[in-house]
Amino acid sequence: VLRDDFRQHPSDVVVAAGEPAILECVPPRGHPEPSVTWKKDGVQLKGDKDEHLTMRGGKLMLANTQKSDAGIYVCVATNVAGEKSSEPAELVVF
Length: 94
Known about the structure:
Blueprint: E1 13-15, E2 21-24, E3 35-40, E4 43-44, E5 53-56, E6 59-62, E7 71-79, E8 82-85, E9 89-93
Parallel strand pairs: 1-9
Antiparallel strand pairs: 2-6, 3-4, 3-7, 5-6, 7-8, 7-9
């Protein structure tokens, strides 16, 4: 089972370059409990490839934001029943 409704969608974030940024989402309820991944501008993010990126639960943490981190982020909940995407959130880096 994977419900439709995200318990919390990520919100738009505006940060200065070099500052940390956190995007948060709470996935829909599901059985089994869905895993959470993130997409930036439609591309799956790989936390293990990037030192300044941490994914923990429904949180996406960027330690030292750069201009290149700016974009549209979507939280994706997945389990055996399927996949659901959150509403998009924009990260603005100035």
